[in-house]
Every structure is written in structure tokens, then in C-alpha cells.
Amino acid sequence: MLNGRHADPDATLGTDPRADPRMVEVFARFGLDGRTPPIEIAVDAPLADRHAFAGMSEEGMAAIFEALAQGVPVPDGVATDITTITGVDGNDITVFISRPVGAAGARPAVVHLHGGGMAIGSAADLGYIRLREHLAATGLIVIGVEFRNSSGKLGPHPYPAGLDDCSSAARWASAHRGELGISHLIVSGESGGGNLTLALAHKARRDGWIDEIAGFYAQCPFISNRWLEQCDDLPSLEENDGYFVDRVQLGLLGSLYDPDGSHAEDAACWAAVATDEELGGLPPHVISVNELDPLRDEGLQYYRRLLRAGVPAVGRVVAGTCHGGDLLFGAAMPDVFEASIRDVSGFAHSLG
What we know:
Elements: H1 4-7, H2 21-29, H3 47-70, E1 78-86, E2 92-100, E3 107-113, H4 126-136, E4 141-145, H5 161-175, H6 177-180, E5 182-190, H7 192-207, E6 215-219, H8 236-239, H9 247-257, H10 276-279, E7 285-290, H11 296-308, E8 313-318, H12 325-328, H13 334-350
Parallel strand pairs: 3-4, 3-5, 5-6, 6-7, 7-8
Antiparallel strand pairs: 1-2, 2-4
Helix pairs in contact: 3-9, 5-7
């Protein structure tokens, strides 16, 4: 059965019968229930123009995400501390540490990596604050990492700067387990943070410290670096194109992370290019994707490759939701939001 734009080239989130009506109603308030407006810049445009596009995208998306997060309740019994650690380049990295108030004994920790195509966004955005708080309310210690972006307000710092910061934060958390009350660590992130999550596994193994991380949980991962290609093996790229995010936008953000394409075959840059040998022997993974996301099939493809490589892995499809929709609509779709929170928490707790 054909779905989305394979069934109707003019399909939108507002007309697709698979879409959760609560999500559509919220998007309609922002005029985002239709097709995304055409982007008037090409992926081979001058780098300065692409950075300007990313800056405008960051401002627009931040305003929408702020509005969506306003209605998400603040969970009881969670406190957050902010500290600064030093990265491998001698740079300062801000980390946000959320934990249950009064909790005794060591507990699992999540190193959380925010979305934005590794190019935009901030761990200080309200939506990510609420996400980390809700994870902490389930009994976790949650460490949000303000890594260097490849563009926007925290850029420009192309690969490997952002990954190096995430690696520094994970190693810092591991080295301070006793002080922080951590029993074991997982790494989790969504979209670009999902790519950083999966890429961090490859970097950690190459650098000889993979045993410090118990597992990896990637949500709607942005990993293929093939968004502007004709990909018969990734039908969701066309099926859901323009549903909140589109392929040109994805390609532009990706081009800022690896501007000259010199890392196109490096699994620590783009997780999807990992060889079977690089996948084999990794710790447990969860790959969660959204049904109405252009990125859906690259995540599912990676999940199936993990299984074939013998990695303990779980695949999860959140029905009715756009890219990251299970995390964006904590107010309008609290049941969907909390289900994803419980799943990340359950995975973290299961590895102890």
C-alpha cells in the first residue's frame, strides 16, 4: 500500500490520514500543517549563504519549540545544576545535570545530545530542559551537553568539534561516577543528536573506551547523508518529504557539518556508513523513529544492520508522528511523550 507522497504527490501532514490529529491541530496554529515552503538556496551555495540560512532556521525553529514547550508541565522533585567542563580543544563545555531530589544510591545516567542537525539548537532551549527534567523524574541522572554546533549561535565548528565535545562530556561523566552518583551510563539524543549518539559509539570504540558506555538510544537519527539522492532503499525520504522537515533543509544542515565532504565515509561523522565490522560487537542499542518522518527508513535500516551484526538492538516506530513528534508535543500529546520518556528510562535501567 502506498502512503504519503507516494500515494498523493500533494499530501501534507494535514491531509495524511496517518497523522495524529492532535499534532495536526497544533501545527495548524503555526501554519505548518501544509507543505514546507520551498527553500531558495542550494546545497552548493556559498558557505556564508548556507550559514545565513541555518541562522534563520535556528531563530524560526527556536520560537516554535519555545511555544510548544511552554505547555509541558514541570515535573516535581527534580533539581538541575549547571557546571563547566573542559573539552579536548581546551574549550569550555556547559553541562546541565538534572537529578531526582533526595535520591539515594547510585543510579543510571543519560548523557543527552540535543537535535538540530549538529548545526543549530542548544541544550539550554526550554524544550530540552523539560525533556531532561522528565527523564530525571523517572529516577535517572541526565546530563545535557552544550556541544559546539557547526553553524548558528554556537558555531561555526564543523566536524569533529561537536562530537569531540560530546565525547568529552561522556568521559567526564564516567570519570566522576562516584561524585555524581552514577551506576552506569547510556548516551541518547534525537535527530542530529541521534547521529552524534550513534557516531559516539564508533569513536569510543576506536579510541578504546567503549566499555565506559552501557548502551545507546537514538531517536529519529539524522545519519544517512543521502537526503538529496534518489534512494530506493529509503522510501520515506520521498514519502514524507515536506512533513515538517524536507530533504533540501536536511541536506543544507548536513553540508555545514562536513563542508568539504572529506568525512563522507567516516562512521564517526555519519553513522550510516559504518561497515559491518564497525557495527559488530557494539553495546546494546535502541533506534526509535517516527512514522511520518523523511528520516524514518535510514533509522530502521541502521537498526536492521545492527541486528545482522549481532548487536542487541530494539527498533521502535512511533505511529502518527512527524520528525521528533513524540518529543515535541508533550502538552498536546502527553501520552505519546511520556511513552517515549518511559522507553528511554526503561532501557537505561535495564542495563544495570
